[in-house]
Known about the structure:
Number of helices: 6
Mean pLDDT: 84
CATH topology: Glutaredoxin
CATH superfamily: Glutaredoxin
Shape: globular
Order of helices and strands: HEHEHHEHEEH
Amino acid sequence: xxxxxxxxxxxxxxxxxxxxxxxxxxxxxxxxxxxxxxxxxxxxxxxxxxxxxxxxxxxxxxxxxxxxxxxxxxxxxxxxxxxxxxxxxxxxxxxxxxxxxxxxxxxxxxxxxxxxxxxxxxxxxxxxxxxxxxxxxxxxxxxxxxxxxx
Length: 150
């Protein structure tokens, strides 16, 4: 194999590795939910969705800074918990449907239904604890519902 071909192959492998890294960490990202995707996503079987509802002009939303992205990183690796975000200025029908009146609002959805609303401190540890507790409750509730059907 000549030097140019070998160099090209090595370069191609390095570029492939470099560009695949963000995809490997996709579970740590905040997923933007829209009018087209919201309903299908929050109905995903056995998946808890922790969703932030916000608008770009809200000073309280701006004050959060990278909190929601940090939360997504902190929850990475937890099975069946997704972190989502809805911009209510662009997706008013969703925000009306789920009864959003102030910003930011944080809600847990499970099997397509609102399961809980977060009202605690706005720090990563508090948000993460809440998400994990509610995910456990949701799984227990589903298990009890299945048992009752039998």
